[in-house]
Amino acid sequence: MIEIISVSKSYNKINNAVDDISLTINKGEVFGFLGPNGAGKTTTIKMITGIIAPTKGDIKVSGISITKNPLEAKKKFAYVPDTPDMFLRLKGIEYLNFMADVYGVSKNERKKKIEDLSKRFDMESALGDKLQTYSHGMRQKIVVMGALIHDPEVWILDEPLTGLDPKSAYILKEMMREHTDAGKTVFFSTHVLDVAEKVCDRVAIINKGKILFCGTLAEMKEHFKANESLEQMFLELTENE
């Protein structure tokens, strides 16, 4: 569960990149965070994960404040950033073991998890190679694997499907559903509206730092009183902002 409580972020003390937003992402749901580039999606995710601090407000992950108790809060979630270019001198297996060490995953548990994830993402033959030799899609997969190695309660994914091949994208979407079926939480940002339509239980649309809509896709359709596609509704929501 994630609670975003009256959160704002200003980088220049004049304009808010994120402007007084409040959201509750429940256990057992895939929650999509939609908006055009520059809308405030990544800033919000960086505040949820504790990379940057909000100017005002508070954020709780599994009931723990990321601003007041960041180390405990960070144990509760996995974070996949929008750019997977990190630790490029490490081999795939070294990166996964490093992430397992960070989260205190036992030797037996990590072995089983690495075998399972590398098989699902078809990465078994690449684990001995350095990340700098990987394609963008392979780097994306290894970062996802590293994030999930400690089986966290909450997944926070920033544009997670970018660069993935269709099979891997399908597998990740399948894993999101398995995770929420177990009563856990997935929060992910995207500007690909078709993905949100197929995967999400609820969505929020953000533009220019403000939440324009939050609810189910059915509620969104009812809100517009029409059978328009999500893309058309999205454009109607944002065109006058």
The 3D shape can be described as globular
Quaternary: single chain
Q: What is the CA–CA distance across the termini? A: 30 Å
CATH level 1 name of the largest domain: Alpha Beta
Structural class based on helices, strands and sheet pairing = alpha/beta
- The helix fraction, in percent, is 25-40%
Provide an overview of this structure.
This protein is α/β, with parallel strands linked by helices and 241 residues long. The protein has nine helices and ten strands. α3 runs parallel beside α5. It starts with a strand and ends with a helix. This is ABC transporter ATP-binding protein. Keywords: ATP-binding, Nucleotide-binding, Transport. It holds the Pfam family ABC_tran.
Write a short abstract of this structure.
The protein has 241 residues and is an alpha/beta fold. The chain has helices at 41-48, 70-74, 92-102, 107-120, 136-148, 166-181, 193-199, 217-224, 230-238; strands at residues 2-10, 16-25, 30-34, 56-61, 64-65, 77-80, 154-158, 185-190, 202-207, 210-215. It contains nine helices and ten strands.
